[in-house]
Amino acid sequence: VPTESCAFAPGRVNLIGEHTDYNEGLALPFAIAEGVTVRAEAQPFGSAGAARIEACASDLGEHDGFALAQPPRPASGWRAFVRGTVAELHDAGYPLLGARVAIDGQVPVGAGLSSSAALEVALCLALIALCGEPPPAGEVERIALARLCARVENRWVGAQTGLLDQLASLCGAPDTALCIDFRTLDVEPVPLALGGWRLVVLDSGQRHELSSSHYNERRAECAQACRLLDVRSLREAGAEAVERLPEPLRARAKHVIGENQRVREAVAALRAGDMPAVAALLNASHESQRDLYEVSTDAVESTRERLLAAGAGGARLIGGGFGGSVLGLLEPGVSPPAGAREVRPGPGAHLLQESPAPAAGV
Ligand code: GLA
User: Fold this and answer.
1) Statement: the pTM of the whole predicted model exceeds 0.85
2) Phi-psi group of 146: left, alpha or beta (phi > 0 → left; psi -120 to 50 → alpha; rest → beta)
3) CA 165 – ligand 1 centroid, Å
4) 173: closest CA among 347, 332, 296?
5) For 187-231, how does the pLDDT look when each residue is reduced to its tens digit (9 = 90+)?
6) By the number of CB atoms within 10 A of the CB, which of 2, 40, 160, 201 ranks highest?
7) Cα(238)–Cα(357) distance, rounded to whole angstroms?
């Protein structure tokens, strides 16, 4: 059994396919270079002789500690993710060891780039390695781990999120977007060859927290639409039946159906190297999120206007909405507006082999 471990998990950008994951639909995310690094050092005995987790969020200068023997108490902020991840790993049967854990994040929190999934996934990989278990290398293991991390969001954080962020973080690969079918959980790599075009993200500055935003309300509206249509998910909903739904359920369902189709068209356009078509699809996705799904805000709209005014061919809100970042697709020669950061698809979550620095500050 190793005495220390170190893992990295990336945040993600969703190219297209928003609010489709919990509707058994399609999405096309990619892992980004920025992520969360977790260093864990085995500490079998606390001062009272009981194994403990002592975690330190290095960038925030904050600490959390709790015994492994009983389920941790609920908490807020980053502590909810740490306590929830440890509790869910324990419930899943992992023989966790007491450890010092140092968390180092480079993904801005609440910016729609999935800092939370990066934290959950990096923590899982580091703690699983520390108890001598193999990393989740195969598809089945990755899906199981993504589900475990989603339970952290659902039970410990109070956000009824789907599997988009965790699967993107776990399965990402350089130069590759992932076409995920959330009905079958098939993950199909799609080469992200942009032919000189660039993807940038521009932060709206409006922080979102999915547990307290209208995110859960949107999810409940989709479930209600399914009950009225007598279908298992909106993937099965027919366009004609949807027209008979009352508002706002009709608008929500139309967004989801249209968005699934846009993902299919974006995959085809990428494969054909047709970047103007990809840009047009990003714009259509944004308009649907704004007008039908109603997850945009004034801050998001003005952020998008800045990208379009700079000459972006396409721009759309990414992530859960109600704040966060806007993704822009820029043709060659167009300069992004001040504050925009270029994003490129990078590797998925992995263990770092180099000897980790000792966990600090606890
Ligand atoms: C958040 C959630 C995801 C997904 C997106 C919207 O990022 O965590 O599960 O629902 O919003 O596409």
Assistant:
1) yes
2) alpha
3) 7
4) 347
5) 999 999 999 999 999 999 998 877 777 999 999 999 999 999 999
6) 40
7) 55
DSSP E strand boundaries for the chain: 4-14, 26-27, 29-42, 52-57, 62-67, 99-105, 176-181, 186-191, 198-203, 314-317, 325-330, 341-342, 350-351
DSSP for 209-224, written as a single string: -TTTSTHHHHHHHHHH
| Atom nearest to 153 CA in ligand 1 | 8
What does each C-alpha distance from 337 to 203, 281, 343 come to in angstroms? Answer: 11, 21, 14
Ligand 1 surroundings by CB, under 6 angstroms: 18-19, 21-22, 161-162, 164-165, 319-320
From the CA of 163, give the closest atom in ligand 1.
9
Question: Of all protein residues, whose CA lies closest to atom 11 belonging to ligand 1?
Answer: 320
Q: Which of 11, 4, 3 is nearest to 122 (CA)?
A: 11
**pLDDT digits over 242-270, tens only?**
999 999 999 999 999 999 999 999 999 99
Give CA–CA dist 145/143, Å, rounded.
5
Q: So which residues are the catalytic ones?
A: 165
The DSSP bridge pattern shows strands 186-191 and 176-181 to be antiparallel
